[in-house]
Specification:
By secondary structure, the chain is an alpha/beta fold. It contains 14 helices and 18 strands. It folds into two domains: 6-262, UDP-N-acetylmuramoyl-L-alanine:D-glutamate ligase (3-Layer(aba) Sandwich); 271-447, L-fuculose-1-phosphate Aldolase (3-Layer(aba) Sandwich).
Length: 451
């Protein structure tokens, strides 16, 4: 649902990874019209901030008036405000605008990722006394909270106390204290508001290069979700999901800390039909050969994942599997998402090591196939279910994840072939991995000598 236009009041990042440039990307991805007021121009890239030039406060208020009086945004967020004069000007104008029902989100941008100060020291008191009281929510990270409270925050328990103190200090309805800077812990964000204190947990992503602009990405997404009418807790949870996905979906840019990628949120949507189309093409290719010898007792399945797949529902495969028929194969139905948890687990595990390895196929175990794979120069690795830890066996659906990880660790990368010698009641299987389903089918056909 389009909530109406929104506005960011923030600095310009010449590198495009944070500030109003990132805000506008988030607004667009979430289907919202975004406008902007420039408060400062930065000389900035992935290596850091190399210079800041604040905009004249009178010019800032002229921009604000132009947007507020004509476009009339339903929600406004602030980011980098640079000086005490700009903070005071923005606080005065937004205070009057908030009385008309607009949602106000304050991201108290104080220090850049590289350590450059983005808010003058004398502006901090103005921020606390004049801007925060007009906000519906403000979203400090741990260094910003430490600067506002004058004390260290080193544990999740420290965060809970700090969030409650920030709520009192800010004199606004809600505070979200972001915990990404506690590197010894999985990231926990603390929401403090009139309903109480809520911990919103997440899993730390193993990257140190794709975190530029996380605060801007989070607060911009939060603004849109609040503008849509979501309650505070639900909006915060959805904003955290959004920024996590934007970090996971980032593409390396530059030589330093590259930015999050809000566009990854729509890449899956764009790819939904092409994934099905690619599976159909691979199926027709397989069907054109007398490939019954490839079919194991458990039948074949062939899967293909969306670019940023994170669950079984993000992987398409063939419902009912691909079965042997006469000299070739047949299928029960065309490909569909969520059709095979088996092949999906293989692909998702492989994608955890190589995001481009998005397809997998299982075929009959045959030592001759493995010999041909060796002759073709395919990278192979295997696992034995006899080595499977007891605790893994006890967890339903864990064997494949354990086995694929073990094979990848053995190979040092995602191999072309993962072979499984089976166990009592478990058929030996060869699993073929590829970047797309046509590549996986081609590999299978080569192992069988058809190509």
């Amino acid at each position: 649902m389009n909530p109406g236009p929104v506005l960011t009041v923030a600095g310009s990042d010449s590198g495009g990874g944070a500030g109003l440039q990132q805000d506008l990307k988030v607004f667009t991805v979430l289907g919202t019209y975004g406008s902007s007021v420039v408060t400062a121009i930065t000389v900035q890239n992935t290596l850091g901030v190399h210079g800041v030039e604040p905009v004249d406060p009178d010019f800032v208020v002229k921009q604000l008036n132009a947007v507020l009086e004509d476009i009339r945004p339903v929600a406004v967020k602030t980011g980098m405000l640079a000086t005490a004069e700009i903070v005071e000007t923005v606080a005065d104008r937004l205070g009057r605008y908030a009385n008309k029902g607009a949602v106000i989100v304050v991201d108290p941008v104080m220090i850049s990722k590289s350590g450059h100060r983005l808010l003058d020291q004398d502006a901090v008191d103005v921020l606390k006394n004049k801007l925060l009281p007009v906000a519906d929510v403000f979203t400090p990270n741990i260094p910003e909270a430490e600067a506002l409270l004058g004390r260290r925050i080193q544990t999740p328990e420290d965060m809970r106390f700090a969030a409650a103190d920030l709520l009192e200090l800010a004199d606004c309805p809600s505070v979200v204290l972001k915990g990404g800077h506690l590197h010894a812990h999985d990231p926990v964000d603390i929401l403090a508001y009139k309903e109480g204190v809520v911990e919103i947990t997440g899993n730390r992503i193993s990257t140190t290069r794709h975190t530029h602009g996380t605060g801007c990405t989070f607060s911009a997404a939060l603004l849109v979700f609040l503008a849509r009418g979501l309650g505070m807790e639900k909006a915060v949870r959805k904003a955290k999901e959004f920024v996590t996905r934007a970090i996971r979906g980032a593409v390396p840019v530059g030589k330093g800390i590259s930015p999050t990628n809000p566009l990854s949120m729509i890449e899956n949507d764009i790819a939904r039909y092409p994934v099905i189309e690619a599976l159909e093409k691979a199926w027709k290719h397989l069907l054109s050969f007398p490939c019954r010898p490839l079919v194991p007792e458990v039948q074949i399945n062939l899967g293909y994942a969306l670019p940023w797949a994170s669950s079984v529902q993000d992987v398409a495969a063939f419902p009912g599997r691909i079965v042997a028929l006469e000299e070739g194969v047949a299928r029960i139905r065309g490909p569909a998402y969520g059709a095979s948890s088996h092949v999906a687990r293989i692909i998702l595990t492989a994608m955890g090591h190589d995001r481009t390895c998005r397809s997998a196929m299982n075929i009959r175990y045959d030592p001759g196939y493995l010999k041909r794979a060796q002759d073709l120069g395919y990278l192979m690795a295997g696992f034995s279910r006899k080595d499977e830890p007891i605790e893994v066996k006890a967890r339903e659906g864990s064997t494949l994840v354990w086995g694929v990880r073990r094979a990848i660790e053995e190979a040092g990368m995602v191999p072309d072939i993962i072979h499984d010698s089976g166990d009592i009641g478990k058929e030996p299987i060869i699993r073929i991995l590829g970047h797309d389903p046509l590549e996986a089918v081609d590999k299978a056909l080569r192992l069988a000598g058809f190509l």
